[in-house]
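Q: What residues go here?
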């Protein structure tokens, strides 16, 4: 399966000039790197503006969130159809920072996943436990989050979807999970998806790791022989063009 590396810029950078500079530098830097999907998730306001020069770019665009309705009286929200019209292809749903700071629930995440799929966009569902589990423990909490996010989908839906395993304790802390822990989570998540939505979906699913990824550790999370982790969701390190390009290079070389 082709790996995927997604840059989650979060609420950065502060001005458009920096955002376009970073986007251009990354698009240029990853141009020759083969066999990998590179995605950038900037803040909403930059999405239409980064489109400039994107025609031949190998970088795809993601949104960091989406509302579940298509239109109407929902002040401040952005719909999946609006995102689709801008050329966005992926949408991050249920990031732990939204769950934590904005009270996003599993039920809301589920509605958003359904809306994103209906619009023909690819969801990047984020799951992860808040506190570190004991070594060798199956991440049961994470399994519950996956089930609640995907409940009500029909068999075959969520094909080619992405699930990011991001332990909350590893995000922005400089303490990533171990490759073994991340692989265990990936196998477990894929099994749950298989049970819920069938083998076709589970086989087409990419499970990726997020939480203190940098150029030094990125490649260690990628499994060679089994369907474990097949990419990364990168926060802090995605704001430095050179480092992010290096992550893409090393993941593609695995
Ligand atoms: P981090 O963030 O790479 O800065 O730990 C990852 C994320 O929140 O997606």
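A:
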């Amino acid at each position: 399966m082709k790996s995927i590396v997604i840059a989650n810029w979060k609420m950065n950078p502060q001005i458009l000039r920096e955002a376009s500079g970073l986007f251009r530098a990354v698009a240029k830097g990853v141009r020759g790197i083969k066999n990998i999907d590179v995605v950038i998730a900037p803040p909403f306001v930059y999405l239409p503006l980064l489109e400039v020069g994107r025609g031949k770019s190998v970088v795809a665009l993601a949104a960091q969130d989406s509302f579940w309705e298509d239109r109407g009286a929902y002040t401040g929200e952005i719909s999946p159809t609006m995102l689709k019209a801008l050329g966005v292809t992926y949408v991050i749903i249920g990031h732990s920072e939204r769950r934590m700071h904005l009270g996003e629930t599993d039920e809301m995440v589920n509605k958003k996943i359904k809306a994103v799929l209906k619009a023909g966009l690819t969801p990047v569902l984020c799951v992860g436990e808040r506190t570190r589990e004991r070594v060798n423990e199956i991440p049961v909490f994470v399994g519950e989050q996956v089930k609640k996010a995907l409940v009500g989908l029909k068999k075959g839906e969520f094909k080619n979807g992405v699930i990011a395993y991001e332990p909350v304790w590893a995000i922005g802390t400089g303490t990533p999970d171990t490759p073994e822990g991340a692989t265990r989570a990936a196998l477990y998540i894929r099994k749950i998806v298989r049970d819920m939505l069938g083998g076709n979906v589970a086989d087409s699913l990419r499970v990726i790791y997020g939480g203190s990824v940098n150029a030094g550790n990125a490649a260690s999370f990628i499994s060679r022989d089994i369907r474990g982790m097949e990419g990364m969701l990168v926060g802090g390190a995605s704001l430095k063009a050179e480092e992010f390009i290096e992550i893409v290079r090393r993941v593609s070389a695995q």
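A: Context that may help when evaluating the design: The pocket of 2-phosphoglycolic acid is lined by residues 8, 166, 171-172, 210-213, 233-237 (CB under 6 Å). The helical segments are 16-29, 80-85, 96-101, 106-118, 140-150, 179-197, 199-204, 241-252.
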